Amino acid sequence: xxxxxxxxxxxxxxxxxxxxxxxxxxxxxxxxxxxxxxxxxxxxxxxxxxxxxxxxxxxxxxxxxxxxxxxxxxxxxxxxxxxxxxxxxxxxxxxxxxxxxxxxxxxxxxxxxxxxxxxxxxxxxxxxxxxxxxxxxxxxxxxxxxxxxxxxxxxxxxxxxxxxxxxxxxxxxxxxxxxxxxxxxxxxxxxxxxxxxxxxxxxxxxxxxxxxxxxxxxxxxxxxxxxxxxxxxxxxxxxxxxxxxxxxxxxxxxxxxxxxxxxxxxxxxxxxxxxxxxxxxxxxxxxxxxxxxxxxxxxxxxxxxxxxxxxxxxxxxxxxxxxxxxxxxxxxxxxxxxxxxxxxxxxxxxxxxxxxxxxxxxxxxxxxxxxxxxxxxxxxxxxxxxxxxxxxxxxxxxxxxxxxxxxxxxxxxxxxxxxxxxxxxxxxxxxxxxxxxxxxxxxxxxxxxxxxxxxxxxxxxxxxxxxxxxxxxxxxxxxxxxxxxxxxxxxxxxxxxxxxxxxxxxxxxxxxxxxxxxxxxxxxxxxxxxxxxxxxxxxxxxxxxxxxxxxxxxxxxxxxxxxxxxxxxxxxxxxxxxxxxxxxxxxxxxxxxxxxxxxxxxxxxxxxxxxxxxxxxxxxxxxxxxxxxxxxxxxxxxxxxxxxxxxxxxxxxxxxxxxxxxxxxxxxxxxxxxxxxxxxxxxxxxxxxxxxxxxxxxxxxxxxxxxxxxxxxxxxxxxxxxxxxxxxxxxxxxxxxxxxxxxxxxxxxxxxxxxxxxxxxxxxxxxxxxxxxxxxxxxxxxxxxxxxxxxx
Length: 792
What we know:
The chain is of the alpha/beta class. It is built from 28 helices and 25 strands. The longest helix has 20 residues. The two termini are about 45 Å apart.
């Protein structure tokens, strides 16, 4: 029996023909600076080959000839992996309960043991389907299981009674879609016999109701203007036409009044166990739900024991603060990984190779040891665990360390070290080891920027989720950290309270189009929350970890607008002009795309069980371009050569060609992304990398100004010690330029460099929601109530 996994000649991406040995039945950590080749080794080599071999012997895969990315791999077992870049879930109706199958178990529990209110007992026996919102028998008939409906605020839409019907949307003199609205209104008015030049106030009650609610049979507006507005708003959201949806501020997405937002029908709403409905139980924090079920009179039934086993696993992996009804798309990358980890623990598998991508993301320092204990229990069962990690606690617990580098991109991809942690910290040529041995230290702020008492942003009466009627101050012009254990209320405070209020009072001068999902987000109104001091803010920029583009072909070059200048450069070349090529010939989304793969560069073959094999397109050899697009050369490089350049290499190429592109490339390099290629596709970019690209896009603008508020959520995701040091400098640069940076973080190194910290707690879920401590890091160190203070 092999005692180790042996990889020889690994050479995918920037890996330089390296040989690696990973002991089986042990915890191995792969570390190194960002872009050194860690994911290329762990996921693109080890996991992909493990998956390929399993599929080959399960009769679900046909053989394909791909270019080999290694010489040999021996000792390989079935492999399971969860990485940040593929855990972004797109189904908005997927929840913690549905993902873990606990919701189905609850449906069975209520169907078997539920007590139905007599007045709703129609004689039909209770069934699982009655407690599942995706089932015709279980869904609410009003919202069809979504729990939400669209309504129009008529007072908002018709607020100006002197406006003519034709100009209802302020569309007179406009072009495009807005003008089209006016045309539709005029056609509708003509159909119902009302003059479009009449003002709203001149209409009789009957005419106004007919205008609003229809019933005339006009095919474009059969139900009047109100439902037409709703349908157009839904259309714009579905197709991500965020601009048009944003114009219709009168449309709101609210809880369905019939089901109260649960999405379930009458039977589920009036069936209880110990007085609680399934909706109530699924909205409880998991830790509270466990306590409730343990006291339940049904205790001892096999089904309830299975539910409790799964719930306790979720608590053990640090997800006690979630509810079963929590949508999967709202979870962080670390939370999703731990959700997967819980399912593996429940399955009690052995002889498996588990590969994780920074599993400690999102965990407070006091929570990490429990995760390490769980991983070590996986190993005791006979499994092998490989983790890409930067956390010192995790590395100290590892049996084996692999360090790749020494630097990123073309300057990395080498094996710097493999062996024990104790030997690793003595390594001379590693950029990581000196921080572990104490030879190098992350900077700690010696003096804190003083608070300007005349520039304080204050929020009062914050009660969303678990916030306990919190009021708090954010000093403007400082680097402000928000700390606390998982589920303590950090995101509720910043993402779910501060951001919506700033959107409301700054008249939507809140720039969150960085993420491709932002246009689909609904407007949140928090009338009970009082905000003051916002007059000192010019604009707010949310720099999150959502993907940087809407399509697979999106990349850093397209997102930062560098590619627009590159395509123009090629289109203006004598060779392109002579052939009649425009800028579209140099885009995989335009005339230049390969007709077979549509610019993707690969063909995707489904091989069963949700698995795909991706094969380079034989027509374009993986470039995504037509052959004629690649014939045009500028200074010895065609368009594909430019996209294949690393950011650091592209800096030299563009230095004397385009100042704006050079400045943006410099900034991308400064945020630690010099190793990344200009054309790296969105699906292969992690959340942490996406966030740093967004940060660079803002920093790279000339004259970004001051009095802005930047909101970052765990920006150290995926960063090594040396990269974190660079991030601290960049955030401080924004503050020095007169801006405010609000950063939600667990990393003590980042928090120690803040000017002011807001700590939430003391626990998670129902045990959190309070402001535990505020002040400088030095002040929190001395505060006995502070939990993070002892780690600063």
